[in-house]
Amino acid sequence: MRFQSLVYLVFFPAVVALYWALPRRSQNVLLVFGSYVFYGWEHPWFLLPLWASTVVDYACALGMERFPARRRWFLIVSVGASVALLGTFKYANFALENLNALLIDFGSAPLDVAFRLVLPAGLSFYTFQSIGYVVDVYVGRVPAERNLLDYALYVSFFPQLVAGPIERAGHMLPQYHARRLFDPLGWRVGLGLMLWGFFKKLVIADNAALVVNKVFALAHPSFPVLWAGVFAFAVQIYADFSGYTDIARGTARLLGIELMQNFNHPYIATSPADFWRRWHISLSSWLRDFIYIPLGGNRGGPARASFNLVATFAISGLWHGASWNYVLWGLYWGLLILIQRFLRWLGIAQRIPWLGKVCVTFAATCAGWLLFRERNLGQIVRDLAQSPFAVSCDQWRVGVYLMALAFFYSLPLVIHTLATRDFARRLATDWSANTRLVLETSVGALLLFGIVVARSVTTSDFIYFQF
Amino acid sequence: MTETRRLLIFVAVVLTIPALLSHLLPVKKHFDSRPLERLRARRPNVVLISDSMLDNGVDTELMGQQLGGRRVELLWHGGAATAAWYFKLKNYVIASGVHPDLVCILFRDWMLTDATFRTTGTYRSKIEAAMHEGDPVYRLLLGDDFAGKQGLERWINRIYPLNARRHVQQEKIERALCRLISVSGLAVGVVERKVNEAFAMANLRAEATEEASAVSKEEEVDFDPDPGHSFLPHIVDLAAQARIPLCFLRVKRYPAADGHVAQSERLRRYVADLRAWIESRGCVFIDDTDNLDRTQDMFLKAGDDHMGPWAKRRSTELYGNTLRPILFQ
C-alpha cells in the first residue's frame, strides 16, 4: 500500500480511530495486524520473508540471553539469515550476471540459470533494522525482547517499514512497551509533517522528476542539459526521500510514536562528512555503528582508517542497489571524505568561507547523483566527457530553462532551509501558543492548496521503495 | 484555549481553506484554438491525424505534391491516441468548417479500440487542450471529466479538484520560465520549440522510445466496436455526419530483415475484424504492415516504428503512393 494511494486514505484514518479506542496491548496487536495488511496489500507473499526475518531474529536474540556461551553462534545464524535473505532477493541476479560476464571473458559458456525474483519492498530497510537489534543484544546495548508481538511491531511498524528510518531497538521498543497518551500538540506536529511530506513528494519531487526523466532519456545530452537534469535529480531525490520520512514521522506521531530524524538540511552541508551527518541519518549512523567501527574505525593508522571508510561506503553503495553504479557512487563518497580529511590536514579546508564550502559540497553531491541516477557505466563515461565549450547557444538555452524549472520547484525547500535555521527556535520559545497556531495553520493550508493546484501531472513511486 | 481546541481549529482551517480557494481557479486550461485557426487559414484538402510517428514519417509539402498538389495538414502531438484523435476530428477538422477530401488516421495494431490508452498524466493535458468541457463521449468512455471513476476518488475530487487544475499551473509555470529564457532574444514560442526539439524522438535512448511506439495495453484483445468501450465508433459517426471521407491506415511496425512483421494469430484476427467493421461503415482501411517497400533501414531504431530523419522523404512517398488511389477513385 502506498502513502499516496486512495486506499491508504481509508486505511489510515480507520487504524487511527480504532487505535485510540483500544488499550495498550490491543493497540500493539492492531498495529502489527495493520502493518501486515499495509505491507501485504499488493503482494501478500512479501509477508513471508518479513515473518521469517522476524521469527529468526527474535529467537536468536532470546537464545543469546539464554545460552551466553553460544551467543556468537546465534549472532552468526541471525545475521547470516538476514544476509541470505538480502542476497537471494536483491543480489543473486547481480552476482549471476557478473559471473556469466566473467565466464564469457574466459571463454566459457555462461550458466543457464535465471533468477526472476521480485524484490520485496523495504527488504533492505527491515533486514538492517533486524541486524541492528541482534547486534545490540549481542553487545548488551539492549536486552532481548521477550514479547514476540512487540518485536514483530518493531520490525513491521508500517509508517517506517518500506523506506525507513532504520530505527534502533533502544529507541523503539521502550515506546512500544509504554502507554501512549493522546497528545493534541503532537497531532498538530504530526499532521504538519505529513502535509509537508506530501507536498515535497507530490509537488516538488514529482515535478522535478519530469525534468529528470526527460534528460536521462536522452542518448547524448549536452553539457548544460545533462547538469540541469542532475540538479533536478538532486531536488527530486531529496524531496522524495525526505518527503517519505516526513510522512512516516507524522503518521507515527499521530499514533503517539516518535521516529528519529532522518534528514537535516543536507544541501547546506559544509563537507562530505557533514553531508552524511545530515543525509539519511539512520543509515549513515547504522553503517558507522555496525560496519565502520567493527572494522576498526579510525584506529590502526591512516591507511587502515581510509580502507575502513572506503569499504563502509562501498557497502553503503551496494545496499542501495545491486548495480555497479551504486558501488561506484559509494566509493566516490569514500574518496571525497578522504580528500576532505587531507585538505583539513593541510589546513586548506578551514580557510574556505562557509558559503564556499556549501557550494563545493553541493557540487560534489550533484556529481555523485549522476553516478547514482545513471545505471549504465558507459553512459556515465560519455556524460562526464561532455564539454561545456562544445555546446550551441540553443543547448544552453534549453539547459538554463530546465535548470530554472528545477530551481523553481526547489524554492519551497530553499525557503524551508532558510526559515528553520532561526525561525523554529523562535517558534518554540518567543511566540505565544495562539501565534504559533495561526502560523502553522496558514502554512498547513498553503501546503494543501499547493498540492491541489500544483501537484505533478504524473505520480511515481517513492525512489527508495526500490531499495 | 486548550490544545484540543487548537487542534480542531488547525484541522478545520487546513482542510477548508484550500478547498474553497481551489474552486476559485479556472477549472481547466482554455481550449487551444491555434490548430482551428490554422485549418481555417490553410483550408487543407487532406488532413492526417496521428501521434509523433506522423511528424517523423510525413513531410507536408512533399505529401502535397504526391497527392496532386493538394494542401496537406498534419494534426498530431507526441503520445496522441484515440481520445485525442476524436477531439482533433470533432473540435478542429469538423468545427473549422473546412471540408477536406480525405481525413486519414494513422494508428498501430490495437490502438483504435483502447479508449483509455494514453489518457492520463501528461497525455491528459494534451487531450484537454482539444476538448470542450462536459463532452458526453469523453464522459461515457473515461468517466467524469476531472474526477476519477471510483466513488471515493470522485468525492475527493469534488472537494479538492486535484485533477482539474494541475495542468493549468504546470503550463503557466513552464511558459513563465520560457518567457524568462526569451529575454535572451528569442520569442517564447521559439524557446518552447527549441526545448521540444532537444527531446525529439531521434535524440532519445532506445528504451525511452519504447513507450512512444507502444500500441496499447499489454494484453491482446478481440475486436470490440461497442460505442461504450472505444472512441472508434464515435470517430466514424462524426465523419459520417460531416460527410468527410475517412481512412484508417495501420502503420507498419519495425520489420524483420526480410521486410515482414511478425504478428500473432489473435492480432491477425483482430485486424481482419477491424477492417471488416470499418469498411462496413463506408470508410477506407489500409494495412501498411505488408508493404515490403518500407524497409528496416528506414526505421529510427530497432524495435521502434518511427521513421529516421534520413527516411522521411522516402516514407512520405510511400504513404503518398498508398493514399493517392483513394483520392483519385
Explained architecture:
The complex is a heterodimer of chains A (467) and B (329). Chain A contains 18 helices and no strands. Chain A is mainly alpha-helical and 467 residues long. In chain A, α3 (47-66) packs across α4, α10 runs parallel beside α17 and α14 (324-346) packs antiparallel against α15. Chain A starts with 5 loop residues before the first helix and ends in a 13-residue tail after the last helix. The mean pLDDT of chain A is 90. A five-stranded parallel sheet of chain B has the order 2-1-3-4-5, with helices on both faces. With 329 residues, chain B is an alpha/beta fold. In chain B, β4, α13 and β5 (284-287) form a beta-alpha-beta unit. Classes of the chains: A mainly alpha (467), B alpha/beta (329).
Helix content of chain A: over 70%
* Separation of the first and last Cα atoms of chain B: 84 Å
Tell me the quaternary state: heterodimer
Interface with most residues? A-B, 45 and 54 residues
Number of self-contained structural domains of chain A: 2
SS element count, helices of chain B:
14
Task: Characterize the largest beta sheet of chain B: strand count, sense, and whether it forms a barrel.
Answer: 5 strands, parallel
CATH class of chain B: Alpha Beta
Taking pLDDT < 50 over at least 5 consecutive residues as the criterion, the unreliable ranges of chain B are: none
**Percent of sequence in beta strands of chain A:** under 5%
What fraction of the residues of chain B are assigned to beta strands by DSSP?
Answer: 5-15%
Gyration radius of chain A, rounded: 23 Å
**SSE sequence of chain B, one letter per element:** HHEHHEHEHHHHHHHEHEH
Residues in helix, % of chain B: 40-55%
Give the total of domains of chain B. 1
Order of H and E elements of chain A: HHHHHHHHHHHHHHHHHH
Total beta-strand segments of chain A = 0
